Amino acid sequence: MTEQISLDDSSYEGLYERAVARLKEQAPWWTHQEVSDPGITLIEMWATLVDMQSYYLDQIQEAHYRKYLKLLGVDEDEGECATAWVFLDGVTKACAVPCGTKLCAEEMIFETQEEVKLTPNRLIAFYPEGNRNRITVMNIFRKSRFALQQNQEEVLFSFVLKDMVEAGEKLCLYVLLDERRKRNPAGQDFCMAQLAWEYRTQDGWKEANILRDDTRGLLYSGIVCLQPAFAGIHSTENGYIMRCRIKAGAYDVLPVLYKIYLNAIQVVQKNTLCCEETAEIPIEGGRVELKSYLAKTGSLQVLCEEGESTWRDITADCTMEPPITALRKERFLVVPDIKGKDNDAMTARIKIICTAEGTVEEYLPCPVTGVSSQRISLPWENLMRNSVELMLCGGGGIYRMYRRTQAGEERYANAWHWQEGKNVIVLGDGRHGDIPEPSGDGLRLTSLVLWEAEKGNISIGRITRWEKPELFPGILCTNHLAGSGGRKAKKPSEQFNEISKVLRKVNRMVTHEDVKTLVKETPGLLIQDVKAEWRAGTVAVTIFPAVPLKNKDCRQKYEKEVAMYLEKFRLAGSRIEVTCDCGQSMDAVGTGHDVCDCGQSADVVDAECDVWI
Fold first, then answer.
1. Which of 201, 294, 517, 606 is deepest in the core (most CB within 10 A)?
2. Cα 449 versus chain centre, distance
């Protein structure tokens, strides 16, 4: 990428001196050249104006960077929402927290991102395998620290639940680990060691199915969701015992455990005012259960699909149950016989627009005049622009979906775009989208989210209540762990500068030092040294982990992760070969300081021996 060049580096002093010097050639009779002369004042003025003009010619405005990002196919950055973990206490019976449920940190709104099942079960005991003394309290405020160790059965730790987990029932645990040890961010599929979560049965220990593991094998704090396949042993005195065991692979550094917690929910700092649900129902109508928190608690508008991107309002024909309460956790929508459909159709598709109570009047209805490029200003500064979707009413209760496009694109039917740098919707102008027909109450937002970006970070630590506490009586919510991730939107120039660094790096794997630098940046790996060399179109890479690896599977995982990461930097026509050395760094190998437990030095130990200590 080219560096910014200066179109004109002339200064005010240079311009002034050049103009005065030319007076002797063009006006030799002009002898009075003091600052008091009106002509000299004009020269000073023009020198100032030319200096200002050359300065602005050299500037690249944010509008230019927006165009550059568009050429690269990159959307403008909207920042990031702050996230936090909320732990729930006082759960006396099994219940569900719907997706989008709102919790409050003073006036800041946080929302759940998925439906979470709460359980009255609780942890009554825990013991690491290196210390068989049963620990009856794991207090998150004290952050008890358990440096895990392995016994002969490769067991890391065990814990006891008060109630039994039935066969086929899901058990979700939040595992809090020490993440301060240096480790590159691991990919979603990275797992250092394969773990088995087991429970005791009449026939011995059985392995539970792992439905979800956000910890990536106890590398990071997160949710582990388990499902026993058979009935386990449970007694009033000893409870329901489970354990975590290393089944295959190995850790470069054993995990350090702080806490195991039930009933944990991850929340994101935002406030959804409008969202939509879709459902397929029989042509003769039917009963639909509403899923999201906003659908269960807010106002509804129901539309039936008539054709491609065309929907008919059938809200008046539907029967809606009242919003949910603490005693009634479900809400249903009854849809009548769908008329106007083809005789061959067996099902109909409906769209349910769910709106937070009290916000409908803020933006509905909004008149559409039919004027080319009509601009509609939305009344929120903290609008998440990528979330907005809208429909326009063409009269007779018929709505048409309008897709979002970028200003300057070729014509699309039913298109709209954002006015540059503002929360203003610009409808079609006949070239960039059709001009909508006039409608007195035409505009309908089907998705709308507000947020405060980095402000969520300062509110973490005070998520103490539900938006509607009456829906979750007796359940207390607290976030003991610090949240993170919230930040303001980046300016287009900042975003472009970051992208330009990446663009310069693509296909840069040329020299040995380039390869070494890239390998050490591989996500999820602790690498101390790298050896790289070119061999007839093949780059041969040997990696030396920071901690010697015992297991062959673990070494193969290292090799696979490095090869996958280097692939995007590979030069056309070249190949990559990666091998993992089971010893330590190149400098350390052969010094005699690294010893296998068979007593031989590292430089003479047999290649088959992989039990380094």
1. 294
2. 16
